Amino acid sequence: MLTTMMDVPLSLNHVLERAGALFPTQEIVSRRPDKSLVRHSYAQWHRRTRALAAALAGLGLQQGERVATLCWNHHAHLECYFGIPAAGGVMHTLNLRLAPEEIGWIAADAQDRVLIVDDVLLPLYGQFKHLHAFEHVIVFPFSGTSVPAGFTDYEAWLGSADPDAWVPAPHLETDPVAMCYTSGTTGRPKGVVYSHRSTLLHTLVACMGDFWGLKGSDVLLPVTPMFHANCWGTPYGAILTGAKLVFPGPHLHPEDLLDLMTLEPPTLSLGVPTIWMGMIQAYSAAQDPAHPQHGRWKLPQGMRSLVGGAAVPESLIRAFDAHGIWLLQGWGMTETSPLAAVSYPKAELRNAPQVERYRRAAMAGVPVPLVDLRIRGDDGQDAPWNGQAVGEIQVRGPFITGGYHEVPVSEEKFTPDGWLRTGDVASVDTLGFLRITDRTKDLIKSGGEWISSVDLENALMGHPAVAEAAVIAIPDEKWSERPLACVVIKPGHTAEAAALNAHLLQNHFAKWQLPERYEFIAAVPRTSTGKFWKLKLRQMFPN
Amino acid sequence: MLTTMMDVPLSLNHVLERAGALFPTQEIVSRRPDKSLVRHSYAQWHRRTRALAAALAGLGLQQGERVATLCWNHHAHLECYFGIPAAGGVMHTLNLRLAPEEIGWIAADAQDRVLIVDDVLLPLYGQFKHLHAFEHVIVFPFSGTSVPAGFTDYEAWLGSADPDAWVPAPHLETDPVAMCYTSGTTGRPKGVVYSHRSTLLHTLVACMGDFWGLKGSDVLLPVTPMFHANCWGTPYGAILTGAKLVFPGPHLHPEDLLDLMTLEPPTLSLGVPTIWMGMIQAYSAAQDPAHPQHGRWKLPQGMRSLVGGAAVPESLIRAFDAHGIWLLQGWGMTETSPLAAVSYPKAELRNAPQVERYRRAAMAGVPVPLVDLRIRGDDGQDAPWNGQAVGEIQVRGPFITGGYHEVPVSEEKFTPDGWLRTGDVASVDTLGFLRITDRTKDLIKSGGEWISSVDLENALMGHPAVAEAAVIAIPDEKWSERPLACVVIKPGHTAEAAALNAHLLQNHFAKWQLPERYEFIAAVPRTSTGKFWKLKLRQMFPN
């Protein structure tokens, strides 16, 4: 027997056209380099996006060819999210925080034909253009000044294209629409290629009520850069639901974000923990009547914020909850589109004590629909979900990558039965909550026992004087490895090793689990995606 | 360039296994024939469902073969929803409200191999068993009494199967999982066959925040029978999100439902307008201190209710809103899985006056994602979305049927370019809201102008004395057709034609649009799915 259902492919073009038809008056707000706000309606965005598709077709772009973007978060970047696939192209978001050499290497590896770049990022382009020859460089006049001679002006180029001339080409749902490179701290970055299918499925799952819970009445402020795992997929969700969008442009400092949230209060936001730590510190400091910014900011009451990219300390969740803002921790990676797990308040926790809810909120969460997840122990067997047994997280599903662009599938990254090896080590409890204990390569093996650097970091960051803490392994003759804690003390505070050890003992760490040594540093070095750059720390403190 | 995403098919088996792993303690409550409640945990349901799959495999069920159900809404029917597909079978829900001859014809047309039937429905089975020979008849002892000799006892059969023996067979995502017959008022019923893919996509779309908004913390009470378009797909959504389920069993009278809602307060419910009309009438009557049921019921404050299957009068929406219950109107049909449009409060209506919000809530709603929708005028052209122009609603998408089981694709049902012709006539306004003006065959053409029977019905049902109103066309020598209103007056009320006409004039009907005649009847005849059976009315009042 056969299904009688229509054979209609999933397509971003459907999402684009639907938004144009159903949400014409909804708003997209972008912050310019001079901090002024520019507003577009969905109707305008829709026509501009169609014009972009027509303009790319005019350049002779062929199905599957890459169009790179080097842009901040703004409406034109959102045009690229839909306009490039509408032209049959693949949007390749370049990460402007990488070293220029690395950006150039990535553009060459992806064989990008076209580059769409913010005018304010042309100096960066200048630093890597010798490494890859784009056929066309289109400059978006983000700052409002005229585009330098020798470049195509995005606005003029769009203006010369006819939005009504665009006719969506038939495509398979497995055809590619976007590409991101992983920010591996070891080895060369590798390209992950998303399809219409994976993007739509990820968006539908992530939009569900327990996760993003995205509705047309939401106001979404994506602090996460649009070049990080497609802004965690949220722009697709906004356009699918017809939500209002507020883009911060290049202004990602805590004070700038507090200004923007006060001007255009979001109901949903997203970013890495560092962003939220900085914001709550700036906001709290300004509560002092003597502070120069006193009274300037209003936190958006009732906002939910997706936080991910690194573990979210429980203390941060509690701090925001006190202001009526709920941090919803997600776990995932570029390879998983990215949302693979969310730490939402499950029905089973409804009557649990508040301390229990916070404890779960600080975990990596529960696997989302369409993601199969298992934890594989050292013995190659699935570890039981008992909250104790640990293993490497392995995942499988229609929005999980099964390989990398032009890289042979390796056993280091994929199991023989086709699951992605994430490199994260976790336990899963009886309610399905993942607790990341470490990265495989960050585990500390002391005297035959594992010590979780992540647990130590979270506990240390719960100390009132500690702004940030990163724990690495140092070699030890007797114990093989011992933990070293690199700690950043908050301005105006002090704390010594003895006080921090006492705090850890209070938090139920065993004596042998305490750091062997503390290093007090000015800042934890970070990767371009905002994660603790432990490789760098290991170089700084080799022993 | 190729996507790097994994090729993993959408599968109900994933949803089944995920629910077993993540929501073991969540509850499924079912009301038995004796009105007692029986409770199962998801963990129990999960093991029973796996046992069902193993038991069906034990019968030699092959991929794609049909297993019919003749059951009320309860936990065992939910086991069929996942257990039959888990065995590779196709769940075919028989509509117990049809005439026995029709049920038998449908079972034969579908070539059902197995029947799973409630013990309380065995008398009905006896009335059609001569029309189709099931190879196996399994009786669910719903009433708790022992199963008659000669039948297999569902409980004993399940108990003899090993839940751990079930291994999901590989399948395509386009493989069939369920089958429903349309309740055509003309011609033979026709089978619609859903797939893993269509079911998962429909579920994900319908779960979105603006539509069902289903979360794990929800309590779902499906009043809609599980044999109507798969209970509008909601059981799949509940299992996907881990929501609590409350099944009413055979007790669908307003007073029974009020009892159940008082015992197990739902946050989300669903049913046809008649159900809600009956409930609000019973509840309102009981507000009188002299009423025998005074103080017995509590309406679930904050509940949302999906209402569909027939137009929802604005007066009904207002009546429930006064009690803190929001009726969310959906539009669709068996052919559309069924949710194709939802009348949710769009962001654009946020600052609109209340009267405007109610007006839209009483419309059929906005097309949901993955559904392409157009209205085709008599001229074969797409009518503009201006709130005035009308045309037939035509839809297309991955959860819309493109044909019927073993019926050649006809031009009456499908356009040459592959869209489903729904037979409903509507306008769409600038915000994308569908207003159904009529069924194509129910339009009244008077003097060259169309009169909407639905508009007349809605307005008449807004009159305080009118319980129900159905309007049909009667032949007229001068005007070709004229409207005839068949009206049911509420007990204890009176209203005459003159008063009803005055009411219509007040509601902005033109004089020529008023019914030519009124017939005061005891009840509007209904189809088995609860829709006004206009064919019957036309037979009753041929002129």
Automatic annotation (TrEMBL), chains A, B:
Protein name: Long-chain-fatty-acid--CoA ligase
PROSITE patterns: AMP_BINDING
MF term (GO), any: long-chain fatty acid-CoA ligase activity
Species this protein is from: Hydrogenophaga defluvii
EC class name: ligase
Record-annotated AMP-binding enzyme C-terminal domain positions: 456-531
EC number(s) recorded for this UniProt protein: 6.2.1.3
A family per Pfam: AMP-binding
InterPro entries reported for this sequence: AMP-bd_C, AMP-bd_C_sf, AMP-binding_CS, AMP-dep_synth/lig_dom, ANL_N_sf
All residue ranges annotated as the AMP-dependent synthetase/ligase domain in the record: 27-405
Entry-linked SUPFAM superfamilies: Acetyl-CoA synthetase-like (SSF56801)
Alphabetized UniProt keyword annotations: Fatty acid metabolism, Ligase, Lipid metabolism
Family to which the UniProt record says this protein belongs: Belongs to the ATP-dependent AMP-binding enzyme family.
Keyword Cytoplasm: no
